[in-house]
Each structure stands twice: as C-alpha cells, then as structure tokens.
Amino acid sequence: MVGFRWNARDPIFRVRGFSMAPTFYGDHRTVSCPDCESETKISELRLAAQATPARSIKCWHCGHEIELSRDPNLVNHEPGDLIQVTATSSLAIGDVVAVNIDGRMRVKRILGLPGDRVAVDQRRLLVNGSRLEAILEATNFPSAAPLIDVDVDRRRTESRWSPAADASNWARSKGHWTSRANDGVVDWLVYHHQAVHQHSRPSAIYDDYPCNVDVIRQLDPVDQLAIAVTLASAARVEVAFFTDAGIRVAIQTLAANESRTIRIVDAAGLVPLDAIAPAVLTAQTPIAIRVHDIPARTGDVVEGIQLRALIVQRSVEYRLRQRDSGANYPRQLGANECFVVGDNVPISVDSREFGPVPIDDIVGVVSRASPDTHPWIYRD
To answer: For the whole model, what pTM was predicted?
Structure first.
C-alpha cells in the first residue's frame, strides 16, 4: 500500500498491487474486449516488472485476442482503490486487515485467530474444520470477496445455455432467453461450461482470475458457484447445482425486474436425479435453471417468461498452491498468532509462505474509502 493522507482518526491508503483482487485492486489498466465488451483489469505494477510487456491478452470471457496498443480507447488507466484502516481490539475470522509485514503495510484477510486450528484437505484451507469461503457465505459476511464472473450470457453471440428438453419452450433472441407459456410446462435451461484457454473445450469450472493475465499455473476446480438472475416478471425460480455428492436445488421467488444472486449455499439438501429430469448435471454442466411465472391475479393469462440477465459466478476459494508445502498442517495457532491470506489466492504472498503473523502486527481493519465519503481527501 502507498500512504495517501492522514486525518485525525484513521489513515487512508491507496492499494498498489493485486494480491487482494477481486476485493481491492491497485493501479491498473481496464481493457475492454471489442468482441464481447467484457472488461479485464491489468496490474500496472506487474506490467512494469515485465522485461517485454505483452502486446495482447486473451479475453477471459470469449477468448478474443485483444491488441493492447491497437486502440487506446479500449484501455482506461485507473488508480488503485482507496482504503481506510481503523484500529480495533476485536477481530473476527474473515476480517480484511492491514498487517505490518517486514516494515511494509499489506492488506490480507484473516483465516485464523489465536487458538484456531488451520488444516488442509485436498489442498483446501480449513479453519476449525470449515472452509473460509463457506464461513463467509453462510454468515453473509459484509467484507467477503466479491463473486467472480464466469459467464455473462447477454455478451455471447452463441449462448452456453441450452434447453434440456428436445421440444422446448425456451428460445433466445438478442441475448435474452424467453419461455412461452404452455399449459404450465416449464423446461430446464442447462449451462455448458467451456474453457477459454483450452480452445473452448467442455470443461469443469476452474479458479481462473481474469486479472491474472500474466500468471501461468495449473488451475483448480471450484464448487462454490452462483447464478445472478433478473426476470421481467414475478416468478418462482429453481436453480439446480451439481456437487460431487449429488444435486442441490435452491428455490426462490423474485419480483418483477428484481436482480438476485442465488448461491449453492442457498440450496437445500440433496435431491434425486430424476427431480430435474430431463436435465443432466455434471462437472461440465454444473447449473440448471427453471422458472415458473406467477400471475399477478388469479385467472390472469401468463404470456411467457424473459430472463433479462443470466450470469454464472464463483466464489473465491482459499487453498494451498502447488508450490506451497503442506508439511506444517494441521497447525494450532499460538496465543499471539494470526493466519492471513490474500483473496487473489494464486499470487498472494501470505501465511502460506511466511507462516502466522503476530497479532500485534495487525494495524487495523480495512474498509473502502473514497473522496465522496471522505471530503477532506484530495488528489495532488
């Protein structure tokens, strides 16, 4: 972090790097894909460290090769996020904090507090037997990392969604799916994932970070999925999620024009496979959606259903990388120790490398700041 200005209470900093992306970003360029209009943030810090800066990047969403120097209108330069650090005597698992590490202030997330047990299961990090991302989602933690977009259907010429039934009421036009009313019969739409970096082959969903354009590594599969939906009219929505243990279904009612994110943690227990027939879910087809229109009044004629937005997303999942040693796990944190991690799991330098940090080195909890909310801030 770079110091920005101090007030009488709490310091304000500007984030430099990408170790906490997608929660906070340092100085970056935002590049817009001319094909699908998806945006990619590229770290200025990492670009400056490259001996030969990349001339192009591959769009994380559609795979289009974006020439960085071709059109300056495609590139916007943006400063790092502003954050405020507030001293506190009370810390919780999941808090985003400023930590003094080797004389430099860094932003990390607390995975474990004094007395907690940090363990590893198939390289996933556990605290007291639970995954950190599961703790954050179950408690709707206010500073949890934002979800990462995997597929934005309206940006695709050819959708990755398709009806499960051969004779379907679903049809797609101008980036929107519409289902005609037909005697109350409602079909499942199934998502078919493709790996952009593997020539769009069918694939499970992996922990790709769109901002890590220069990172070459082995990706890991993810299972904490979500879907963001917007409907033109009030409806009851069923979302089926594939898991290794079976199918889980979340059922929610949305108002007209309401946007809502439905996560796998919202789903109930396992359901029989025939409960979502003819949809077949696998790791490569991990989500299906079915929508039941709700008439405004009894006897009203339902003309159809329109999905105005359909976005597949994933949570940040905390784990050891291939290079991290698992020899020190499980470990019980001492009376003065905290285990911290970065939200940009592949690149963050944190307790997975240098071990627990003294709790006295935690300066305070971090929150987003801006000139709008802090009028005393000015740009030099």
So the answer is: 0.90
